């Protein structure tokens, strides 16, 4: 069983479909988990589920990642209040879906602001604490859509490509500080993200057709991968993108 007692995790978008289980997983293993999100309804649901764990703890912070100035101030305040963060999980994302011709440049930029820029800011604000301790973990949440492209989703797909690039660049640069940087690329998980598909049953058939494993993924599958990558069991793994997709993409 993994033990994260004494570790602080910062998880963006942690009130979302995949994030909640990751937050509860780390808290259940003794960590203090700070969740940044704007979905306060699901944030309070998360807090009540965390209270029942009685082990680690979850702190919910309403913080809009699309507001760079607010985010930077918020991160400074969080570090002042809770101390250095050991494990940063860059998980929040938005995924507007429509044909290329219907997107504006502003909409494209708005996706990069949340999915990419906010996470660059998180790394900028939190790396100094990791560096000082000589230990840290950064996990970026990518997506298998990056490999095959995906129609009607170009700002999202390009943002996920950027996260894979950041993973490699940061891994190369931060290794000397004892900080590993990896990405997790989920396949298709039944969360809100899936509601962009109009026919749920047809979509499930499509997913199971593509996966080697003939069951739908669960948020637990993501949580356990995050915990492995954050643990000392994964201390020699850096710069990698791990596909957690039931064997959809094999590379
Ligand atoms: P989700 O929409 O349920 O969760 C995303 C969370 O990010 C939400 O709680 C949302 O409120 C938060 N968020 C969005 N904009 C924000 C902002 N401006 N400020 C603060 N918080 C903000 O989606 P999910 O399925 O839990 O996805 C989690 C991650 O996994 C994302 O990076 C997503 O791209 C990735 N992913 C998911 C799937 C899937 O099938 N669910 C597949 C591939 C990748």
What does this structure look like?
The chain is an alpha/beta fold and 251 residues long. It has a single domain, classed as NAD(P)-binding Rossmann-like Domain (Rossmann fold). Helix content is 45%, strand content 16%. It is built from 8 helices and 7 strands. It has helices at residues 19-28, 40-51, 68-82, 105-133, 145-148, 154-174, 200-210, 219-230, and strands spanning 8-12, 32-37, 57-62, 87-90, 136-141, 179-186, 241-244. Strands 3-2-1-4-5-6-7 form a 7-stranded parallel beta sheet, sandwiched between helices. β1, α1 (19-28) and β2 form a beta-alpha-beta unit. α3 runs parallel beside α4 and α4 runs parallel beside α6 (154-174). It is globular. The structure holds nicotinamide-adenine-dinucleotide. Residues 13, 15-19, 36-39, 64-66, 91-94, 114, 141, 143, 186, 188-189, 191-194 line the site of nicotinamide-adenine-dinucleotide.
What brief labels describe this structure?
251 residues; alpha/beta; Rossmann fold; 7-stranded parallel β-sheet; 8 helices; 16% strand; globular; binds nicotinamide-adenine-dinucleotide
Summarize the structure.
Helices cover 45% and strands 16% of the residues. It is α/β, with parallel strands linked by helices and 251 residues long.
Secondary structure topology:
Layout: E1 8-12, H1 19-28, E2 32-37, H2 40-51, E3 57-62, H3 68-82, E4 87-90, H4 105-133, E5 136-141, H5 145-148, H6 154-174, E6 179-186, H7 200-210, H8 219-230, E7 241-244
Parallel strand pairs: 1-2, 1-4, 2-3, 4-5, 5-6, 6-7
Nicotinamide-adenine-dinucleotide is lined by residues 13, 15-19, 36-39, 64-66, 91-94, 114, 141, 143, 186, 188-189, 191-194.
């Amino acid at each position: 069983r993994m033990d994260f007692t004494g570790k602080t995790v910062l998880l963006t978008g942690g009130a979302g479909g995949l994030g909640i289980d990751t937050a509860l997983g780390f808290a259940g293993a003794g960590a203090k988990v700070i969740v940044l999100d704007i979905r306060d309804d699901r944030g309070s649901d998360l807090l009540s589920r965390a209270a029942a764990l009685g082990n680690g703890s979850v702190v919910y912070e309403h913080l809009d990642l699309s507001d760079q100035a607010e985010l930077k101030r918020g991160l400074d305040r969080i570090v002042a209040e809770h101390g250095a963060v050991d494990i940063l999980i860059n998980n929040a994302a938005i995924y507007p879906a429509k044909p290329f011709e219907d997107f504006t440049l502003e909409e494209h930029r708005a996706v990069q602001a949340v999915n990419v820029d906010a996470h660059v800011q998180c790394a900028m604000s939190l790396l100094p604490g990791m560096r000082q301790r000589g230990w840290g973990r950064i996990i970026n949440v990518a997506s298998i859509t990056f490999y095959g492209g995906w129609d009607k989703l170009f700002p999202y797909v390009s943002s996920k490509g950027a996260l894979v690039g950041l993973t490699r660049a940061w891994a190369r640069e931060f290794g000397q500080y004892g900080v590993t940087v990896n990405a997790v690329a989920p396949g298709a998980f039944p969360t809100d993200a899936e509601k962009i598909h109009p026919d749920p049953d047809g979509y499930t058939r499509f997913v199971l057709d593509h996966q080697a494993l003939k069951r739908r993924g669960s948020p637990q599958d993501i949580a356990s991968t995050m915990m492995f990558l954050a643990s000392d069991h994964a201390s020699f793994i850096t710069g990698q993108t791990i596909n957690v997709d039931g064997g959809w993409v094999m590379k």
